[in-house]
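Example record

One chain of 197 residues, shown exactly as stored in the release files.
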Amino acid sequence: MKIYGLTGSIGMGKSAVAAMLRREGVPLFDADAQVHLLQGPGGALLPAIEARFPGTTGAKGVDRAKLGAAVFGHPQELKALEAIVHPAVQAARRRFLRRNRARAFVILDIPLLFEKHGQRRLDGVIVVTAPAWKQRKRVLARPGMTVAKFRRIVDLQTPDAQKRRLADHIIRTGTTFAATRGQVRALVACLGRKTGR
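Predicted structure tokens for this chain:
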């Protein structure tokens, strides 16, 4: 089984591409979705997060604004949160890989793939990209987003141009939905040929 990574900076359309890949029948592990599950109502990580960051969880799960305020801009606090979250996500990913071991290839949706040097353990990397103006427009349309917050997030991420240079495959979402879907279908066919399926 080949394992590919899917990544892209904030606002590039990675979630839309991931949904398209799923519709094409590709097994895809979404690290962010797993975090939401673990931190949502009744989530397995709530007790540990509440113990380390008191007042940041409740009946609806993690209060993202409160937890974000506790860790954003505080490297040691962020590391403490990652020490709680990352092992649980890695365990879920191992279960996903075991369930799909008979498949020709799978895709791991990993937002901070290059930032965490995760590309070293993969058979290839797919980068989702869009023009900078479109990225900015998409992100600033999100509830609660500000220009300052957007800039801070972008500054923490590997630049898009560098991601594209390191990519094995690129999906461009700055065009139409149909054009993006066409690229996704071509990618699935390409990966299928590489694995002989």
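Notes: The radius of gyration is 17 Å.
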